[in-house]
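Researcher: I've been going back and forth with a colleague about how DUF3576 domain-containing protein might be arranged in three dimensions. Neither of us has a model we trust, so I'd like an independent prediction. The organism is Ruegeria meonggei, in case that matters for your notes. Sequence below.
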Amino acid sequence: MRLIKIFGLISLAAALAACSNNRSTPTTYNQNLVGGNSEERELNDPNRSTIWDVFDTGKNEQVTNVNRYLWSASLDVLNFLPVQEVDPFTGVIVTGYGKPPGGGRSYRATVHISDPALAARSLSVSLLTSGGAPVSAATTRAVEDAILSRARQLRIADNKL
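Model: Here is an independent structure prediction for DUF3576 domain-containing protein. You can compare it with whatever you and your colleague have in mind.
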């Protein structure tokens, strides 16, 4: 009888330890990266600790490598295009076809933000016309410049607060 109780306690302890691996993975918060609302930031605060931190190995953190100013600026500049897919962890925004204000052609854009730095090397824009033909390099460059300018404006506005 005593052996059954000991075996039961060991099984219960093993089951409880196994449950700690099923909780959601925290995401590291960085103010320059795309993030959630203030409640999510509070939950992902690196200084916050819980009883479950004893079992945490620290290997399960996901960090987004997307500059939040470039992300917001891309959505602002291309707001006339319907958004089809977004992935803030890989930095990809895919839009559907839409006409710019005052324009006659429909365009589709794919934006890739590859670096957390607010720099031109971090941004890649691909534009297609409704016929599937690529847009001229000058037009693509103008869109990239507009996104970078808007990102700088957002950053300056953020620093004034």
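Researcher: What would you highlight for our discussion?
Model: I'd start with this: The beta strands are 83-87, 92-95, 107-113, 123-129. After that, consider the following. The radius of gyration is 23 Å.
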